Amino acid sequence: MLNIVLFEPEIPPNTGNIIRLCANTGFNLHLIEPLGFPWDDKRLRRAGLDYHEFTRVSRHADYAAFLAAENPQRLFALTTKGTPAHSAVSYQTGDYLLFGPETRGLPADILDALPAQQKIRIPMQAQSRSMNLSNAVSVVVYEAWRQLDYAGALIKA
């Protein structure tokens, strides 16, 4: 399956919602610290309901530790500075989808290290700055899963 990577997430309900999303799709979740909240935050638990036990969550001390532990072969960063749309990518099992923190996005050094075709964006209206993190993750996850014919789903398309 695919991997969702949250770089220094700040808002517990967003992360909780993404935990629940991963439980429902079979995607793995990677959290790159520092987190903007304690891991036992009640808002994180409330948003994720009882889905925490059904999600593979890996925590990494920093971005370098994530790269060393996972050695991602295909990593796509979601950014408003990206050119290809998220739907223009041909996703493959094992891909990593990297999302930045809610208030600032991914740092320039991470984006600069990736080729242009791996910096992707979700289309939106010109006057919009960005989407809510858990909504953005959902949009991309379901497009990737659709391309993989909803692998592992109870009902396929």
UniProtKB/TrEMBL annotation:
Gene3D superfamilies with a match to the protein in the record: 3.40.1280.10
Gene Ontology biological process terms from the UniProt entry: wobble position cytosine ribose methylation; wobble position uridine ribose methylation
Catalysed conversion reaction: cytidine(34) in tRNA + S-adenosyl-L-methionine = 2'-O-methylcytidine(34) in tRNA + S-adenosyl-L-homocysteine + H(+); 5-carboxymethylaminomethyluridine(34) in tRNA(Leu) + S-adenosyl-L-methionine = 5-carboxymethylaminomethyl-2'-O-methyluridine(34) in tRNA(Leu) + S-adenosyl-L-homocysteine + H(+)
Subcellular location field: Cytoplasm
Enzyme Commission designation: 2.1.1.207
Binding site residues for S-adenosyl-L-methionine: L78, G100, I122, S130
Enzyme superclass (EC): transferase
GO cellular-component term (any): cytoplasm
Limits of the tRNA/rRNA methyltransferase SpoU type domain: 2-142
InterPro entries the record matches: Alpha/beta_knot_MTases (IPR029028), SpoU_MeTrfase (IPR001537), TrmL (IPR016914), tRNA_m1G_MTases_N (IPR029026)
Single GO molecular function: RNA binding
Domain of life per record: Bacteria
Keywords per UniProt: Cytoplasm, Methyltransferase, S-adenosyl-L-methionine, Transferase, tRNA processing
Pfam families on file: SpoU_methylase
Signal peptide: none
HAMAP family: tRNA_methyltr_TrmL
Chain's role: Methylates the ribose at the nucleotide 34 wobble position in the two leucyl isoacceptors tRNA(Leu)(CmAA) and tRNA(Leu)(cmnm5UmAA). Catalyzes the methyl transfer from S-adenosyl-L-methionine to the 2'-OH of the wobble nucleotide.
Family: Belongs to the class IV-like SAM-binding methyltransferase superfamily. RNA methyltransferase TrmH family. TrmL subfamily.
Assembly notes: Homodimer.
Name used for this protein in its record: tRNA (cytidine(34)-2'-O)-methyltransferase
Primary gene name: trmL
